[in-house]
Amino acid sequence: MPATIIVGAQWGDEGKGKATDLLADATDLVVRYQGGNNAGHTVIVGDEVFKLHLIPSGILYDHVTPIIADGVVIDPKVMLQELDGLEERGLRPFERVKVSGNAHLIMPYHRELDLLIERRLGKANLGTTKRGIGPAYADKASRVGLRFQDLFDEKIFRQKLDAVLVHKNEQLAKIYNRLPMDLEEIADEYLGYAERLRPLLTDSTELIHSALEAGQHIILEGAQGTLLDLDHGTYPFVTSSNPVAGGALTGAGLGPKHVDRVIGITKAYVTRVGAGPFPTELFDEVGERMTDVGGEYGTTTGRRRRVGWFDAVLARYAERVNGFTDLFLTKLDVLSGFDTLKLATAYRYDGQEYRNFPPHQSIFHHAEPVYEEVPGWGSDISEVTRYEDLPQAARDYVDAIEESAGAPVTWVSVGPKRSQTLIRRDVPLVPTG
Ligand code: IMP
After folding, report:
1. I want to staple 414 with a disulfide (CB 3.0 to 4.6 A). Which of 192, 266, 282, 333 is the partner?
2. Of all helices (H) and strands (E), which one includes residue 135?
3. Which residues contact 308 (CB under 8 A, 6 or more apart)?
4. DSSP state, 64?
């Protein structure tokens, strides 16, 4: 059976956990393919709320095997904390979660450097989550990273650490005036995690391909979002991995022939955490109301998210770089009660109009949104259970999003619970091709 990719269509926090939740009954494996514990997925199952950072949200469903694939970066301390928390809630993560030996490790110097680099950038900082993500991916690209499999070979672990620590300590001392880090201390800590983590070590591509051959269904679960993609996002205000659909293939180790659905998750408005341009950002009471009603505070860092009107230029761009087969529109309920709503259909800069994502970053930085105004709806829609029962204005708003984004809206979410998901297009949850 083919695989489904779930991708954030904006700057992250779109509600990807909810889409996984919807498909969970029909799936067998949920694979995280990039990022690390910079992510924060909130999933509500029944009356229970789970906040996950690294472990794929498939863990919440007994029949699902959650996999952390090659493209992910792992902080073993944080992973153990999350596994222990899930164990306490009876989810048996030490038996069920599988981790690729090729996934890279976040080391103590990565966390430290993430902090120091941000501090040094001063006002020009990126607003990272300070989890060591960027420095860990940088070492991976420089071929000096340590991998999950190295935890289980003490000699190799020490050898690699010894080689890389010389440079890290030089950097810490000479550039940042910090004390050097101690090899023995790091080795003791990390090798100390190995015993408990050994049962998780897996050849994840083998597992994924056996599942595909056996006709099982797989979800490739993205973290962050398209506009935070290292190659296709709003560089340099991006994360250091590839959340886009293409990144799912490299991160998990499978070819395009295995994928036949790419679900883009998008809020009915836009949010962003951290620094960087945001053309439709709101600084007024409208934005404040969206933040409060939408509970727009980060799951990982607790930071207040920036909010703005729906941006169709960005939605079209996300469609282009991911090839969405479906859109899952979330948080439509947050927009109830506004007299009018705005959608940015283009940008204006220097007398010129841009319907598509501008080719140069400076244009994007100074882009003025061109808005289309549409009527809002007065009533609360969070109790609506059938799409047809939404107010006409709400359905018109969804039509406008679909038309401007260029991909069909299949599901519309009007609240955090699974029951608050409305089906707009009646398509099979899991394709049978
Ligand atoms: P990093 O991933 O910690 O390096 O942070 C780089 C940028 O990505 C910052 O603007 C972060 O706020 C943002 N970011 C990273 N992870 C997430 C996420 O899961 N949701 C939203 N923004 C994120």
Report:
1. 333
2. helix 133-141
3. 269, 270, 271, 272, 278, 279, 280, 281, 282, 287
4. P
Distance 250 CA to ligand 1 centre (A): 20
Whether residue 350 is predicted with pLDDT greater than 90 in this model: the reply is yes
**Around Cβ 371, how many Cβ atoms within 10 Å?**
16
- Residue 417, Ramachandran bin (φ over 0: left; ψ between -120 and 50: alpha; else beta): beta
Single-letter amino acid code for the residue at 215: G
80 touches 106 (CB < 8 A): no
Q: How far apart are the first and last CA of the chain?
A: 7
Distance of CA 415 to CAs 123, 274, 336, 376, Å? 36, 25, 12, 18
CB 106 within 8 A of CB 73: yes
**pLDDT confidence of 41, banded at 50, 70, 90?**
confident
Amino acid at position 385, single letter: T
Mutational pocket test of ligand 1: of 13, 125, 224, the residue with most ligand atoms within 8 Å of the beta carbon = 224
Ligand 1 atom nearest to CA at 39:
19
- CB burial class (10 A; 0-12, 13-18, 19+) of residue 81? middle
Check residue 270 and give left, alpha or beta (phi > 0: left; psi -120 to 50: alpha). Answer: beta
Q: Indicate if ligand 1 lies below 6 Å from the C-beta of 113.
A: no
121 pLDDT above the threshold of 90:
yes
> Given this model, what pLDDT does residue 67 score?
97
Residue among 38, 52, 133, 272 whose CB has most ligand 1 atoms within 8 A, to mutate: 38
Specify the residue for token string 């049962």.
Answer: 199
Nearest CA to ligand 1 atom 16: 38
Crossing angle of helices 312-322 and 245-252, in 10° steps, is 40
**CB-based contacts of 91, cutoff 8 Å, min separation 6:** 59, 60
Q: Quick check: CB of 197 below 6 Å from ligand 1?
A: no
Instruction: In whole angstroms, give the CA distance from residue 52 to residue 398.
Output: 29
Give the tens place of pLDDT for each residue, 307-337: 999 999 999 999 999 999 999 999 999 999 9
Please state, in angstroms and rounded to a whole number, the distance separating the CA atoms of residues 369 and 349. 9
| Residue from 57, 37, 97 nearest 241 by CA | 37
Residue 300 clears pLDDT 80, i.e. is over it: no
Can you tell me the mean pLDDT for 203-213?
96
Predicted confidence band of residue 431 (pLDDT cuts 50, 70, 90): low
Between 298 and 321, the more confident residue is: 321
